[in-house]
Amino acid sequence: MSLSTSLTPSTSDTPHATSPHALQLRDLWLRLGREVILRGVTLDVPAGEGITLLGENGAGKTTLLRVLASGLRPTRGEGRVLGYDLRDNRAVRDHVHLMPVDAGLYPDLTGTENLDFALRMHGQHADVAGALRRVGLERAAGRRARFLSAGMRKRLALARAWLLARPVTLVDEPFANLDEGGRALVLELLGELRERGVTLVVAAHEPGLARQVAPRAVRLAAGRVEEERGA
Ligand SMILES: Nc1ncnc2c1ncn2[C@@H]1O[C@H](COP(=O)(O)OP(=O)(O)OP(=O)(O)O)[C@@H](O)[C@H]1O
């Protein structure tokens, strides 16, 4: 099936608002080395929806998120993010934020600098000190990310995703390494993103938690995405 038959292709110049879908994937395949990781992923996600992405270890969740963030190019198939072709790296990166499982921070920048830098990259201004307070990191503002604990790095990455509030926000294992308060914060901040109309994809092994902010659940199995039944 060809997406181009049903959609007017967007370029970086055309506004994404023409597409009611945040994600449209058609028969996406991805090979890494000798392994075929994605085997015909087809998925439609309306703008503003919250999706929980489930699957066993090694199922390909992180890989799929990287494809959606334009960090990996599909071997074949078609994909659009807010109407932009997935292969249009620049447009996709302008609209998509990926919070990776390891937080993806600059280790030699402080907490404040990491947030300032991310905002500057998107031409945004925001209350960085307030965001650090919100995630309980006010005292770590001046510490380099490399000297933060895994849970503190996660909180910093969460503050960044929340400040950026990109129209499509992809979150890989947001609950890992967090204490109870941290997990509640994830739910609170990701919930606020949803309220602001952000499309959210959460890869997680905790469906009960993730579905509180991303109610529709899909499962990656054998390289394909299947709709998960039941609440
Ligand atoms: N750079 C790479 N080169 C080759 N294979 C890779 C590469 N990165 C990941 N893989 C393989 O892709 C498959 C999917 O990995 P991925 O990290 O996407 O799984 P996951 O569903 O996120 O797993 P987990 O729940 O353990 O985080 C695994 O078999 C992994 O070995």
UniProtKB/TrEMBL annotation:
Gene3D superfamilies: P-loop containing nucleotide triphosphate hydrolases
Domain of life where this protein originates: Bacteria
Keywords per UniProt: ATP-binding, Cytochrome c-type biogenesis, Membrane, Nucleotide-binding, Translocase, Transport
Classification via InterPro entries: AAA+_ATPase (IPR003593), ABC_transporter-like_ATP-bd (IPR003439), ABC_transporter-like_CS (IPR017871), ABC_transptr_haem_export_CcmA (IPR005895), P-loop_NTPase (IPR027417)
UniProt GO BP: cytochrome complex assembly
CDD domains named among the record's database cross-references: ABC_DR_subfamily_A (cd03230)
Protein's recorded name: Heme ABC exporter ATP-binding protein CcmA
Source organism of the structure: Deinococcus terrestris
Gene responsible for this protein: ccmA
